[in-house]
Amino acid sequence: MRRSLKSVTMGVLILAILAGVGAWQWRAHAAHKTSFRDATVKRGDLYVTITATGTVEPEEVVDVGAQVAGQVNVFGKDKSGKTIDYGSVVEEGTVLAKIDDSLYAADVALGKAELDQDKAGEVRAEADLEQMKAKLVQAEADWNRAQKLGPSEALAPTTYDSYKANYEIAKANVDLDEASLKQARATTVAAAATLDKSQRTLDYCTITSPVNGVIIDRRVTIGETVVSSFNTPSLFLIARDLTRMQVWISVNEADIGSVHPGQQVTFTVDAFPNRTFHGTVGKIRLNATMTQNVVTYTVEVNTDNKDGKLLPYLTANAQFLTGERHQVLLIPNAALRWRPQTDLIAPEFREAAMTAPRSDAADAEHAGTVWVEDGDFVKPVQITTGLTDETLTEIQGGGITEGTSVVLGVQLPGEATDADAANNPFAPQNPWRHPRSHRTNSP
Q1: Euclidean distance between CA atoms 342 and 344, whole angstroms
Q2: Residue 306 half-sphere exposure, CB side, CA atoms within 13 Å?
Q3: Using CA atoms, how far apart are residues 205 and 221, in angstroms rounded to an integer?
Q4: What sign has the CA pseudo-torsion 176, 177, 178, 183?
Q5: How many CB atoms lie within 10 A of CB 336?
Q6: Are 372 and 381 in contact (CB under 8 A)?
Q7: Is the pLDDT of residue 344 over 50?
Q8: Tens digit of each residue's pLDDT (9 = 90 or more) over 99-134
Q9: pLDDT digits (tens, 9 = 90+) for 186-244
Q10: Which of the residues 123, 171, 339, 427 has an alpha carbon 20 to 30 A from that of 140?
């Protein structure tokens, strides 16, 4: 009996030892088990964009200058009756400023006097011509009578020759006075042209607006002297219509092929950070510029500004929509880039995994590989990738469906999960409210 009790005690002790060893091995195995970072395949809309910066510009700007030199005496009145200044609304023909016109007014007075004098000279030339024509008639009659009589006892030869000479002189005098009259008329025309030029120069002393618009820059002050020599001095800058604006955006040569007229564009300005503005591509300028070996093209984006929020020369952060997909399966690009170590791959897939195609999310519509958990291991799934925005990629095939979990990598101790990153309130928000590209073109 004592021996049996001893045997039972020894058996219980051995079982306890085996159970403890098993528990320790299980805990050790659990401690060394690999944890994976997963992401759920979702269905949604994918928008791909190119990001660039530019400047808000008025659609049409008129630079009003001065064609004469002189001192600015006074500013005109705008549409509301206030003195012309920054932001004044003006109409075509509105007087913007007046330049001292005393010298030019003197030139006009001198021109008028010269014109009157030349007109008087023209009248005198006409009278002289008429007088010479009368003398010609008399000389011609005397000469005709002398020809009938001829040199004879009734008409001395010297008298005969005198009549002939007087006739020829009278004809010459008529021709001379006709030329003098033409000269006098030409002088009158020249004087009239000089007066007209002087009058126009005098009129240029009054600076008027050539268009309807808003003055966005006033570059002179009262008492300032403007000098018009080789270059026309600029006095006012007028925006013709601020309800229509343009954004001049510098696009890198690598992305210009994805930009075309009519393309949708969104942009923001620092003045209104919580508002997204919309526009369309109007024109791609061909005069490219190079800055530090970077070639950029200027793209004109037309936008509506009826509410007047957009001000000239604001800096705009624009995004060109280059592609979009609706209600497609999306996975993070990290799932396409990750390749597990061989010991993490399920044994039956290790040989096939060595020859699996390497995927690159930057390329569209090609074969790729993602990994899904298979117990303590992962196994490959072949898919076809589509459009990507460098964060998410469209996928098809491989049995991947909405809600499938794909592996992004190995979860390290203390590392934040993807859910934590997604819920980060400091993460940047996308104006399209959809996944987008983060490629940047700096001007």
Answers
A1: 5
A2: 2
A3: 15
A4: positive
A5: 23
A6: yes
A7: yes
A8: 999 999 999 999 999 999 999 999 999 999 999 999
A9: 999 999 999 999 999 999 999 999 999 999 999 999 999 998 766 778 899 999 889 99
A10: 123
134: its two tokens:
């009368």
Q: Which tokens sit at 127? A: 């009278």
Give the span between the Cα atoms of 53 and 409, in whole angstroms. 35
- Number of residues in the chain: 443
For 205-216, write each residue's pLDDT tens digit: 999 999 999 999
Task: Name the residue type at position 437.
Answer: S
| Whole-prediction pTM | 0.65
pLDDT digits (tens, 9 = 90+) for 380-393: 888 888 888 888 99
